Amino acid sequence: MMIISTIQKICLFLLSYLGLYGSHLLARIIAPMIFPQNSKKFKVTYKNLRVCFPDKNEKWLKQMSRSSLKEYAKSLLESPYIYRISRKRTNSLIKKIYSEDIIENALLQKKGIIFMTPHHGSWELSGLFAASKIKTYVMYKPLRNKFLDSYVFNGRKAQGSVLVATDNSGVKALLKALKNNYAVGILPDHTPKINQGIMSNFYNNPVNTTSLIYKLAKKNRVPIIYIVAERLNDSSGFNIHVGEVDKVFYDLDEIKAADLLNKTLEEMINKNVSQYLWSYERFRNRVGVEESIYK
Predict the structure, then answer these.
(1) pLDDT by residue (tens digit) across 30-57?
(2) Is position 243 within any domain?
(3) Total domains present in the chain
(4) Gyration radius from the chain CA atoms
(5) Among candidate residues 274, 234, 275, 17, the one with its CA nearest the CA of residue 126
(6) Which residues of the chain are modeled with pLDDT < 50?
(7) DSSP bridge pairs for 184
(8) What beta strand segments (E) does 203-277 contain?
(9) What's the CA gap between 37 and 87, in Å, rounded?
């Protein structure tokens, strides 16, 4: 175990100094090797794309699957560098920020902020960028590998985020944070356990959707802001896209609110399909749906 831990430490140290160009080049090289067509990741990616884009042909589906897995590999390999740089100069990673005034206006309302940071582009950078604007509380589920868990945990705290448990105590911490006019970060595309979410639609497919955003935002009409850190093709950095969920959200019931969040997510994804995490089993734990696309 000590040998494995030492190897992990060396790899993460090297990646933290490799830079974006080097880590992205490495990702493009190794992605076809670790995610071949017969791998589980490729199969899940392909199946998700097939049900979400039924009008696309076989060539597009396989090409997009390969592209998406390369982007996934980039997100993994670039993270050590992002963690290290973010402790000193997060802005050096960012080329452009679109609609940053949305955050500034939300801060003036003093109701707290709910940041939606989907699995799109560099969600690690999205979270760090949010935390650079306001003290942010984020739920965190420990990784099985203790060394990697410690590394990611400390990396996500690089801008001062407070990481809380993914249980009732964590939810209470988020509520308290909003009450104190702080921010919370939520993954809108996390799949809840069965009977713990709301059935909605994602690309016209039934999907179990978190109801946490609705429960946190509804009463006090807390601003809901989404952030996407789009990875630039030349590996020079990222563009940050900021947007706000339509205020009609607060007047909807739980199901329609979930529909609105998923529709907003679709609009984000459609701007850069390959950078979404299609290898995640999004269509699991669905109530009232017998078939599974992952069989």
Answers:
(1) 999 999 999 999 999 999 999 999 999 9
(2) yes
(3) 1
(4) 19
(5) 275
(6) none
(7) 114, 137
(8) 205-209, 224-231, 238-244
(9) 38
Domain membership of residue 284 (yes or no) is: no
Answer whether 238's CB lies under 8 Å from 94's CB. Answer: yes
Query: Which pLDDT belongs to residue 181?
Result: 97
Enclosing domain of residue 93: 2-275
pTM of the model: 0.94
Task: Give the Cα separation of 240 and 56 in Å (integer).
Answer: 29
Record the tokens describing residue 101, joined without a space: 């005034």
Residue 289 lies in a domain: no
Per-residue DSSP letters for 141-180?
Answer: PPPSSHHHHHHHHHHHTTT-PEEE-SSHHHHHHHHHHHHT
Task: For Cα atoms 111, 229, 158, give the angle at the middle one, nearest 5 degrees.
Answer: 70
Structural contact between residues 122 and 23, judged by C-beta atoms closer than 8 angstroms: no
Length of the chain: 295
DSSP helix/strand/coil, 71: helix
Residue pair 206/103 in contact by the 8 Å Cβ criterion = no
> How high is the pLDDT of residue 14?
94
Please report whether residue 202 resides in a domain: yes
Q: Are 8 and 147 in contact (CB under 8 A)?
A: yes
C-beta separation of 125 from 93 below 8 A: yes
Residue 201, token pair as written in the block: 């639609």
